[in-house]
Amino acid sequence: QVQLVESGGGLVQAGGSLRLSCAASGRIFGFSGVGWFRQSPGKDREVVVVESWSGGRTYWLDSVKGRFTFSRDNAKNMVFLQMFSLKPDDTAVYYCAASSSPITIGPSATFDYRGRGTPVTVSS
Known about the structure:
Layout: E1 2-7, E2 10-13, E3 18-26, E4 33-39, E5 46-52, E6 58-60, E7 68-73, E8 78-83, E9 92-99, E10 113-114, E11 118-123
């Protein structure tokens, strides 16, 4: 089994920054892709970023391009989402997710595993 545990969410004012972390454990070898998605009440799930495990392909949600960065520490089995210039529309629960089955690197990416999520609230 795979366990993903997110941390780093919280309350921040518009224009502020947050760094989300995700620690992976278990049978994590053989992933096809990893990323973050978010969910807020009344809105469809949005894939924020998804990257192929090889790192060759990456998809970004248009509304966060240039404001968020994604990084990985493979040695520590961790991934990060650094968020800058946060806006109220970024308010959501953010989930770290990964897949070991074939994955679409795009907005319709589906994941085999996800964490419990970490809430991000951006006040105006």
